[in-house]
Amino acid sequence: MSNKRRDLTPHENSILLSEVENMCPFCAKPLMYEKNGRQYKLWEGAHIYPLNPTESEIELLKDEERLHEDVNNIKNFIALCGDCHKKFDNPRTSEEYRWLLSIKKNILSKSETRAKYADYQIELEIKEVITMLVEEFNECTLKQLEMQALKLDEKANETLTRITKMRIRNEITEYFYYIKEQFAHLDSQYPRSFNAIASQVSAFYNSLSRIESSQEVIYGQLTEWLSKKTGNSNLGACGIIISFFVQNCEVFS
């Protein structure tokens, strides 16, 4: 008996469009267009594992991971433009299936992590350190950390991409002492604020590491969390702060 395709609810349509940030994951085409002041869809909710697989598709995908046993569960849908949906389905390949599955898995992982943002607070005094980095930073005041003191190489694993590792390494060597001085100044105004901030970063890192094994993803989520919790602060500056806590041992411990 064949499965019947169900109609997605307006709420589910909004979720799927938001997940891919209004861009087709295959071709990056916008998924909505405006005409006469109204918005119109250019996309379809595509089944990642086929709704009614043929015998050859069942054989092709028999050893592949599935995100839900129910093919009509929203976890098995992703927003694609009409053209890419047709190409994905005809003919279906294991390579494209794995790629689309990995995109959806990453989306679901981020959603699970973002749901925790509200549960983990950060002292708002840290905004003063971020502001110093963005608005008042003086490069002449930098004192570089000696490379032999760098802890990143001991802690990083294969899940951290080379380019991100290089960025973290550069941020630690360039900014570690500067950030440390700013936290010391913060402590002089708000006693023990650094200890509170460090424990909060550590707590959220520990929470992330229980559900996410990739250091690449964890670093990005910590950076985004810090930005969101401090009023959408500059992502670059927040990344430098998280790199500081990599060296200071609250992250990647």
The average pLDDT value, as a whole number, equals 92
| SS field, number of helical segments | 10
SSE series? HEEEHEHHHHHHHH
- What is the total tally of β strands? 4
Distance between the termini: 52 Å
The helix/strand class is mainly alpha
How many separate domains? 2
Shape annotation: elongated
Strand order of the largest sheet: 1-2
Low-confidence stretches: none
Biggest sheet architecture: 2 strands, antiparallel
Portion of residues in beta strands equals: 5-15%
Helical percentage: 40-55%
Radius of gyration, CA atoms, in whole angstroms: 22 Å
Secondary-structure map with pairings?
Layout (H helix, E strand, L loop, with lengths): L9 H10 L12 E4 L2 E4 L1 E5 L7 H6 L16 E5 H8 L4 H21 L11 H10 L16 H4 L6 H28 L3 H19 L3 H15 L5 H13 L6
Antiparallel strand pairs: 1-2, 3-4
Helix pairs in contact: 5-7, 7-10, 8-9, 9-10
Short description:
The chain has 253 residues and is mainly α. It has 10 helices and 4 strands, in the order H-E-E-E-H-E-H-H-H-H-H-H-H-H.
Commentary on this structure:
A hairpin with a 2-residue loop joins strand 1 and strand 2. The strands form two sheets. Strands 1-2 form a two-stranded antiparallel sheet. A two-stranded antiparallel ribbon has the order 3-4. It folds into two domains: 10-114, no CATH class; 117-247, no CATH class. It is mainly alpha-helical and 253 residues long. The protein is built from ten helices and four strands; from the N terminus they run H-E-E-E-H-E-H-H-H-H-H-H-H-H. The protein has helices at 10-19, 55-60, 82-89, 94-114, 126-135, 152-155, 162-189, 193-211, 215-229, 235-247, and strands at residues 32-35, 38-41, 43-47, 77-81. The mean pLDDT is 92. Its EC number is 3.1.-.-.
